[in-house]
Amino acid sequence: MSDETRSLNLPDVTTALAMTLDALRAADTDTAYRVCGTSAALLQGVTLPAGDIDILLASREDVDTFAAALSAFPCLYTASWLSETSQYFTKFEVNGVRVEFSTVERQVESDGWECVGSGPWQHYVLITCGSHHVPVVRLELRLVTELLRDRADRYDPLLDHLGTHGFDADLLQRAMNACRIPAHRRRLVQDRLGRPSLPFAPPPA
To answer: So what's the pLDDT on residue 185?
Structure first.
């Protein structure tokens, strides 16, 4: 998934996403997907910088199916394989918002990655967006992505939100282990979210 540039607000995201999903419905497309990235956090009530909508798909055929359904919208990047990131990727503009569709084709054992392996398919919440119920990756996985990237302007609001609304401590621990989050950032998380039931272990050797 790409880095964000222009900051979007929640109405930007919900409007563009609803239009995208309306186009998929009109094309009679019923393919599993997950919303990832910073827009997933916005949809769950976290205020942070976001520049696009990232939609994860399971196969290249699914990416092509979504691209065909959005053919009425401007295509910013034709579906193609990106070897440097192991993605099959395409990008459209919907109501002025970049909407990106991608596979991420790397093998991992853990369910603690946001966009790789079983994690996004197992750990998600459903958010109402227009007439759609949108599967959005859980914030624990989103937080660890931002810790891995060391983007404080993203992980600080996520930590605030999880500290207020609660979180799955076991999932967060597995995700930090899978992504090998360094000790100083684990200590930051413990300081912000720490509680007796939070099992923060050092990263595996």
So the answer is: 95
Stretch among 5-9, 126-130, 134-138, 170-174 having the lowest mean pLDDT: 5-9
Mean pLDDT of the chain: 92
Tens-place pLDDT, residues 74-131? 999 999 999 999 999 999 999 999 999 999 999 999 999 999 999 999 999 999 998 9
Provide CB contacts within 8 A for 135, sequence distance 6+. 32, 33, 34, 35, 124, 125, 126
Residue burial 96-117, b: 16+ Cβ < 10 Å; e: rest? ebbbbbbbbeeeeeebbbbbbb
The number of angstroms, rounded, from the C-alpha of 170 to the middle of its chain's C-alpha atoms is 19
| Strands annotated E in 122-171 | 124-129, 132-137
128 contacts 35 by C-beta, under 8 angstroms: no
Sign (positive/negative) of CA torsion 31, 35, 37, 38?
positive
Distances (CA, A) of 156 to 47, 143, 152, 187: 10, 9, 5, 14
- Where do the domains of the chain lie, and which CATH numbers do they carry? 10-138 (3.30.460.40)
In the predicted structure, residue 202 carries a pLDDT above the cut 80: no
Please give the backbone phi and psi of residue 100, each rounded to the nearest 5 degrees, phi first.
-115, 135
